[in-house]
Amino acid sequence: xxxxxxxxxxxxxxxxxxxxxxxxxxxxxxxxxxxxxxxxxxxxxxxxxxxxxxxxxxxxxxxxxxxxxxxxxxxxxxxxxxxxxxxxxxxxxxxxxxxxxxxxxxxxxxxxxxxxxxxxxxxxxxxxxxxxxxxxxxxxxxxxxxxxxxxxxxxxxxxxxxxxxxxxxxxxxxxxxxxxxxxxxxxxxxxxxxxxxxxxxxxxxxxxxxx
Length: 211
What we know:
Layout: H1 3-12, E1 22-27, H2 32-49, E2 59-65, E3 70-79, H3 95-103, E4 112-120, H4 125-139, E5 144-149, H5 151-159, E6 164-169, E7 192-197, H6 198-210
Parallel strand pairs: 4-5
Antiparallel strand pairs: 1-2, 2-3, 3-4, 5-7, 6-7
């Protein structure tokens, strides 16, 4: 089965209805959809935080309104292989070591990705994306997702049933290679770095659905 069809099937099973008819898609670099998502994120961060960002994830997970085919939200996904993830700057050791210490996982970067940025352009779409991200990550080959979430997004992660650990408070001074001024007022939103265990999250959701 094609990946898009598998994702639609996987996220639909046992999920609560969204506020509107959202559909999940993937946008890869070089596509018009990817460029559109990146521009929407830049505008969102500039408006909300007076921050200047240049998102370049490996791909965007995109939530669209199927009726009007508008992009209602997106989340960037970036593999940990061959690079240091942005959120790793806030940690005291490599993310694969954190996975090994917390869950006795193999110290391998291949099953680890970073989520970021996450941006919602319609009420309820952020929660919609966060509920489906663990399943999507598994289908993309990832068991763990590292991300940095503001206080508000932490609330959404809890509502989405994420199983994981909060690892650190994010501080602009720890961002090697990034000027603090680029982020505007973002750090006033009390961001914290979180490690999501995708299979534990999906397993807990399946158990709740079976009750």
